[in-house]
Design goal:
single chain, 250 residues, alpha/beta, Alpha/beta knot, Trp Operon Repressor, Chain A, 2 domains, 9 helices, 9 strands, elongated
């Protein structure tokens, strides 16, 4: 997969993508990253890329022409069509389902805004979709782009040493992930649940499913709204929400 980063600071995303799973995906040739700076396509000695907003008000707006030329050069660098996503608070909130769809694309271009954003005419003419990470504002789209790159990279086949890791991630089946434990078994902070040490794979799978259901109900009930649980999942959730049994008082 190829990802193009259109940004005034493409090296920021490049550095973020040099570590961990994303770095390994690039080393294995599963993902290539290419940076494009609109300033390289601007006119004049100052390479101006922004100007005041029409209608008055604070802040500057990124200009159409440097971005148009930059995107034109980006598209010409590879014959494959690039799906252009603009990182902006006005976009559709990113979720795991959309990440899977983006990860299946042969080529993705991430357009990073700055200042008050990008001239709307460029957005209407060149952008295929707008993506938001959440209901808050960042100084620019570079952090959001780095998040998208990381989320997409880990879904490339062969990026994870154990492909099953991605299948167990939060949101992959619409639920949050279950708790995880490692050594030692006994610690001042607590003990690893006995079921995870039992070797009974069916019981472990049941426990993990129940924990995922309970955790989702407690922390992100919105994820369960409108979802029809199977009879088995409903029983697991009901059992998991029951208060723990206590010894009778002597």
């Amino acid at each position: 997969m190829r990802i193009d980063i259109v940004s005034l600071f493409p090296e920021f995303v490049e550095q973020c993508a040099g570590f961990g799973v994303t770095g390994r995906a690039r080393e294995r040739g599963l993902l290539s990253l290419h940076g494009w700076n609109p300033r390289d396509h601007a006119d004049g000695n100052y390479r101006k890329v922004d100007d005041r907003t029409f209608g008055g008000g604070p802040g500057m707006v990124m200009l159409v022409e440097p971005l148009r030329r930059c995107l034109q050069a980006m598209r010409a660098d590879d014959p494959r069509p690039a799906h252009v996503a603009y990182l902006t608070p006005q976009g559709r909130r990113l979720d795991q389902a959309r990440v899977r769809e983006l990860a299946a694309l042969p080529r993705l271009a991430l357009l990073c805004g700055r200042y008050e954003g990008i001239d709307e005419r460029l957005v209407q003419a060149e952008v295929d979709e707008e993506i938001s990470l959440g209901d808050y504002v960042l100084s620019g789209g570079e952090l959001a782009a780095a998040v998208v790159v990381d989320a997409v990279a880990r879904l490339q086949e062969g990026a994870l040493n154990d492909a099953g890791s991605a299948e167990q991630d939060s949101f992959e089946d619409g639920l949050l992930d279950c708790p995880h434990f490692s050594h030692p078994v006994e610690h001042a902070y607590g003990t690893v649940p006995e079921v995870l040490r039992s070797g009974n794979h069916a019981a472990i799978a049941r426990w993990r499913r129940q924990q995922a259901l309970v955790r989702t109900w407690q922390r992100r009930p919105d994820l369960l709204q409108g979802r029809v649980l199977s009879a088995a999942d409903r029983r697991l959730l009901d059992e998991g929400l029951q208060p723990p049994a206590t010894d009778p008082v002597a």
